[in-house]
Amino acid sequence: MERKLKLLCSDIDGTILNTDRDIAPETALAFAKLPKDFPIILASSRMPSAMYYVQEKIGAHGSPLICYNGGLVLDSRGSTLHSHTVSLAFLDTVIQHQKNFDYNISTYCTDTWRTAEEDYWTTREIRTTRVEPVLIPLEDHIAILEAINEQPHKIMCMGNPEALDDLIKVLEKEHGSEAHFYRSKDTYLEISAKNIDKSTALEQLIRDTYNLEMEDVIAFGDNYNDITMIKNVGFGIAVANATQEVKEVADYVSDFSNKENAVALAIEKFLH
C-alpha cells in the first residue's frame, strides 16, 4: 500500500464485535500492537455509554466518539462537538401513531435512553448494549424533554415490520424530510436528524482534532449506515458479512466476518 494511513475508524455492531457482542482477544491484541499515538475512532448508531466498554477493550479510552450515526460527536473529554436532533413535534407524531399499533418506542437524548417498559425489545437492547434504560410512561416523554430542554438524537422503534412501514408513511406525510430513516433489520427503525452520516461527522472531527483528511483514514464497516464512510476514506474495508452495497464501495473486502476477527486480521495485514 502506497498511502500512509494515520487514523483508524470502525463501526461496532456487525464489524468489530464478535458473536458475544464483545471484543475478541485477537482483536484486542491487534489494536494493542498499534502505535500508542495512532488515533482510533468508533462510529456507531449507539449511545455514548454503549460504546465506552468497546473503547476500553481496544485501548481507545478517552478518544472522541461518533454516536447516533453522526448525530452526536464527542471530543476526548466527552464534551459535545456537534449535535443534531429531531423535534419534539416529530416525536409526538411517533407516540400518537404507536397508540394504534404494537411496537416499542425508545428515545436517546445525549447519553440517556428512555422507554416505557422493560419488554422483549428492551431486554434485547440491554443485553446487546450493556446499558439500562430510564423507564418513563410514553405520555410523559414530551413533558420531561421539554422540562430539561432536550430533543432526541435518535428515536428507535422496535416491533412489527408492517407497523413500522406504516409509521414511515405517516412521518413522511406529516414531517416531510425532517428526519432520516434507517432499517438495520425489518423489525428495527432508527430515526435521526436529516443530512447526517458517519462520513460527514468523521471528516469534521479528524480535520478539527487531528488536522487529518479522509484520505488518511482506514475504516471498517458492514451495513448501510457505513456506506458513505467506507466510500470516502482513503482505505475502506468491508467485512465478509457486509451488505453488497458496502462491498461495492470498499477498497478491500475481507474474506472474514466479524465473527472471524476480520478487523484484527486487516489491522495485521495493512497496519503492522
Task: Describe the overall structure.
- With 272 residues, the chain is an alpha/beta fold.
- The protein has two domains: 151 residues, 3-Layer(aba) Sandwich (Rossmann fold); 106 residues, Hypothetical Protein, Haloacid Dehalogenase-like Hydrolase, Chain: A, domain 2 (2-Layer Sandwich), CATH 3.30.1240.10.
- Helices cover 35% and strands 22% of the residues.
- It is built from ten helices and 14 strands.
- The strands form two sheets. The chain has an eight-stranded mixed β-sheet with strand order 5-4-3-2-1-12-13-14. The chain has a six-stranded mixed β-sheet with strand order 8-7-6-9-11-10, covered by helices on one side.
- A hairpin with a 2-residue loop joins strand 6 and strand 7.
- The protein is globular.
- 42% of the residues are buried.
- The model has no long low-confidence stretch (mean pLDDT 96).
- This is Cof subfamily protein (Haloacid dehalogenase superfamily)/HAD superfamily hydrolase (TIGR01484 family).
- It holds the Pfam family Hydrolase_3.
- InterPro entries: Cof (IPR000150), HAD-like_sf (IPR036412), HAD-SF_hydro_IIB (IPR006379), HAD_sf (IPR023214).
- GO terms for molecular function: magnesium ion binding; phosphatase activity.
